[in-house]
Amino acid sequence: MPAPWPSMPPPWPPTPATPHRHHDAARANYARALSRVNAALADPRTAVQDQTLVAVLVLALFEATVFQDSGSSSSSSAPTSWVAHTWGAMQLLMLRGPDQLASSLVARQLFAHASNNIKASCIQRSAPIPQPFLEFDGRVRGLLDGRDLAVPLADLLHKVCAIKARAREEQERSLVLLLEALQVDQEIIAFCDAPPPTLSFTREPFLQGPAWTYQRIVHTYASLRLCKVWNAVRLLRIFLLSLLGDDIAHCRVDETLAESHTLSGLNEYARKHMAEVASDILATVPSFVHTENGTRTFLSAGRCLGWPLGILELSTVCPPDASRYARRTLEWLAEDLNLPQAIDPERHPGSRDDW
C-alpha cells in the first residue's frame, strides 16, 4: 500500500492578494482532505478507486497553486508536498494495475493525466523517470485511446527526461549528449510538421494580430487544453535548445572527434530554432488573456506560461526582443494572478545548470 501522506500541511506565506482568513481556511480544508486521503489509502478497497486518485491529483494541484518559491538556489525547485502527491499518484497507478484502463473512459483519462504529471515532475527536477513506472507505462500504453494527446507524446517525453537527467549528472556536457539532444529535437520537429488531426491549430495571417502581441503574431486553438499541449511540446524543444546553446561552453569534447565548427554549428542551430519556438510560445499568450471593455486580464490557466517564459527570458540563445517580451509578460502574469515568484530575481540563479 502507498505510504500515508504527510499529516500536516506545509506552511506557505500569505500574499497580499490572499487575506489571512482565506489562507487559514485553505490550510484547514487541506488538512481535512489530507486526513481523508490517508484513510482511503489505508483501506485496500478504497485505495484503488478513481475518487482516491482524483483526490491525490487535486491535492497536488492545490500545492502547485499555492506554492511560493522561497528563494531556492535551483530553478527546478518544486514544492515538496507537490512532489510527494505526484509520487503517490505514481504508486496508485501501479497499484491499480492494467485493469484500471479497461474499467472506464474516466479511468483512462485519469491515467493519462497522472502519468503526465509524473513525467513533468521528473523533467522539472531533472530526475530520471523511475524504471518500474517506465516499464508499467510501456505495458499499458496500448490500452489507451490512440486519440488521447498523451499517447503520441509519451516517447518524446521519455527521451527529453532522460537527456535532462543525464545533463544534470554530468559536470560538463559531452558531445554525445549534445548530438542526442539534436536528434531528439529533430524528432520533435518531424512530429510538429505532421501532427495528428486532433492537434491542428490556426496560424493567423502574419502581422495581423493586436498591436500588444509579440510581432503581431497570433495562433488560434480549438481549446486551451490543445494550446497547453502544443506549449508542452515547445517546452521540450526549449529544454533541448537550451542545452545546445546556453550550456555549450561546458561541452567536453575530444578534439580528434569534434572541431570548433561543430560546436559553433550547434550553437547557430540553437539560436535559429529558439527564435522560432519563442515566437510560437509568445503567439499563444492571447489565448490566455480575457479582454473586456478594453481591459486585458490573464485567465487563471495562464499560469502554465510561467515555466517557458521564465526560460526564454534568461536564455542566451533567445532573441533579445523575445526575451524582453517574455519578461514583460511575466510581470503582467505575476500581477494578474498573484504570482510574485514568476518575477522573483532569485528564482533562476541556477538556471544554467538546471535548464
TrEMBL record:
- Note down the stretches annotated as region Disordered: 1-23
Which InterPro entries does the protein's record reference? DHMBA_Reg_Transcription_Factor (IPR053175), Fun_TF (IPR021858)
The name of this protein is C6 zinc finger domain protein
Recorded source organism is: Beauveria brongniartii RCEF 3172
Q: Does the keyword Nucleus apply?
A: yes
Q: Which UniProt keywords apply?
A: Nucleus
Look up keyword Cytoplasm and say if it applies: no
Q: Pro residues compositional bias: what residue ranges?
A: 1-17
